[in-house]
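In response to the reviewer comment on reproducibility (Comment 2.3), we provide here a single inverse folding case reported in full, input and output, so that an independent group could reproduce the run without further information from us. The structure tokens appear first.
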């Protein structure tokens, strides 16, 4: 009895273990019935994503920003420039006092403040043609950006239509398989009842197998078409997407009244790549005219302001008139003392006072 009871417990443990393993497998494995997180995109959304991610479009936008900066710089060249400077230094040993221009061996703390401004009055129209060149270059960059966007949009439309085409092929292959399977089931009933030969059933079995292969190939082609669309949009290949097939009204008749030459002429007028090439030629011509302006003399007007400070000149002499006459130590030819009513005194001459006293301007 003990042996039998042990066997029951062993069998029970094995059954429970098997059930636990099955539950773990069911939980860990992906469920086919659970819908994946698939993002359904319209044609407009695909185009917008591709434009935002495309490297050529980003490069064209940066080139447009650069041309706008060049144009602003050219326009700013017509206005006067202004520069300001300030310095402070300490000199030891034999040096020149920047205020008195005399040699000294004392330590000198010196400082200077200055500013200049200049404006070009005439330079052979270099600025005029330079602005025209950069303005045309900006328009060319804008046309190049539009051309890059057009190329990306056309590529996305091509890949989008390819996905739609392969979707239709997949649906057709699935329909063909379902039709073959229905025929095979009907023929099997006829063969089992003796109303149809066995060879007819075998032919349909072969047809079903061929349709299954066609269905697998159609699914693979659809997956490749979706992958190409993802690559064109520069999104991860692991991202699950699907497309929304637009409703197109095909009841209207196409207008064939336009000739091929008219279509070509319209394309020449509106295509941004042709406009960009024309603008590039125009910008180059303006560049040649701007370079030719360097043959002429340049006329400009400018001015400057400067002042300075020196610690060697931190005191200055002042004249005091409110004193009695004093002898100067000099004598006239008749032997009389030479008197003066003025004599010099000194006062501090600080940093800001020297800046005020030593100001100088220049115009030229």
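Designed residues, in position order:
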């Amino acid at each position: 009895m003990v042996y039998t009871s042990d066997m029951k417990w062993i069998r029970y443990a094995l059954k429970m273990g098997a059930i636990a393993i099955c539950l773990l497998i069911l939980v860990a494995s992906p469920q086919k019935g659970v819908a994946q997180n698939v993002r359904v995109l319209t044609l407009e959304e695909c185009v917008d994503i591709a434009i935002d991610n495309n490297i050529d479009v980003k490069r064209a936008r940066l080139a447009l920003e650069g041309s706008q900066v060049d144009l602003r710089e050219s326009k700013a060249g017509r206005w006067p420039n202004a520069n300001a400077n300030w310095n402070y230094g300490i000199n030891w040993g034999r040096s020149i006092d920047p205020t008195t221009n005399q040699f000294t061996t004392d330590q000198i703390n010196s400082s200077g403040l200055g500013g200049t401004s200049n404006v070009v009055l005439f330079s052979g129209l270099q600025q005029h043609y330079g602005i025209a060149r950069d303005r045309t270059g900006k328009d060319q960059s804008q046309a190049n950006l539009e051309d890059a966007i057009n190329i990306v949009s056309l590529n996305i439309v091509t890949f989008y239509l390819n996905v739609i085409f392969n979707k239709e092929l997949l649906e057709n292959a699935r329909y063909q398989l379902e039709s073959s399977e229905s025929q095979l089931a009907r023929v099997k009933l006829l063969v089992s009842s003796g109303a149809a030969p066995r060879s007819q059933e075998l032919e349909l079995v072969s047809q079903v197998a061929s349709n299954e292969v066609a269905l697998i190939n159609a699914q693979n082609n659809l997956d490749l078409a979706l992958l190409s669309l993802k690559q064109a949009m520069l999104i991860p290949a692991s991202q699950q997407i699907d497309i929304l097939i637009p409703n197109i009204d095909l009841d209207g008749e196409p207008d064939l009244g336009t000739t091929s030459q008219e279509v070509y002429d319209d394309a020449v007028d509106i295509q941004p790549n042709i406009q960009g090439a024309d603008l590039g030629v125009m910008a180059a011509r303006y560049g040649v005219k701007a370079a030719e302006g360097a043959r002429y003399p340049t006329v400009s007007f400018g001015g400057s302001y400067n002042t300075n400070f020196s610690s060697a000149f931190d005191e200055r002499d002042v004249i005091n008139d409110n004193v009695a006459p004093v002898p100067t130590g000099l004598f006239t030819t008749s032997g009389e003392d030479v008197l003066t009513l003025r004599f010099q005194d000194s006062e501090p001459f600080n940093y800001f006072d020297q800046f005020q006293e030593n100001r100088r301007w220049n115009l030229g």
